[in-house]
Design a protein that fits this description.
Elements lengths: L3 H19 L7 H9 L6 H12 L13 H15 L5 E4 L2 E4 H25 L4 E5 L2 E4 L13 H17 L6
Helix pairs in contact: 1-2, 1-5, 1-6, 2-5, 4-5
């Protein structure tokens, strides 16, 4: 199973490459960061398991039972589409006024990050389960790699991304 760093880094790299080379209109970098953070959010069930076990004195592990589901990625995508096709251009949320485009990009970034997490776990996890709906596992994932082969996966992604950033954005200027 990929480490937390791999979930964040690979999601950021793919979102950044999409932003730099494919997107017709470049979107703000904050949404690349949102996608990266969303790539880690499905693993919030790990500390939730720890807290649950501490409070109730059990040894129950619900990692990949509730949050590792395509349902959430699809839900975030559908929410973004609802806002995209809405007629209203600005929304007041709490005391903030948000433009429709910002809300759409936020939910698209959340959907992409969540989907990347599921794809990484599906392709690289040892058990090969994918949840379409929370708590209903499907034996669908191929899991072509052994766990010992993916130990350095996050390091490889980071090095390749730094090479890309040096080429594309000349990061030596920051040093």
């Amino acid at each position: 199973m990929p480490y937390a760093v791999a979930h964040v880094i690979l999601t950021i790299v793919i979102a950044d490459i999409y932003r730099d080379y494919i997107a017709k209109k470049r979107f703000p970098m904050i949404y690349v960061l949102v996608a990266g953070i969303a790539g880690l959010v499905p693993d919030m069930d790990i500390p939730a398991s720890w807290v649950f076990n501490f409070i109730f004195g059990t040894h129950y592990n619900f990692h990949r039972v509730y949050t590792h589901s395509l349902f959430y990625a699809i839900a975030f995508f559908l929410i973004s589409m609802i806002f995209l096709f809405a007629r209203k251009e600005k929304y007041r949320i709490l005391k903030l006024t948000l433009h429709k485009q910002a809300i759409v990009l936020f939910f698209l970034a959340m959907a992409f990050g969540w989907l990347m997490h599921i794809v990484l776990d599906c392709g690289l996890a040892a058990d090969g389960y994918l949840n379409l709906i929370p708590t209903i596992p499907l034996s669908f994932c191929p899991s072509p790699f052994r766990n010992d082969l993916i130990v350095g996966f996050d390091a490889i992604i980071l090095v390749l991304w730094l090479i890309h950033e040096q080429y594309r954005h000349d990061i030596k200027d920051y040093f």
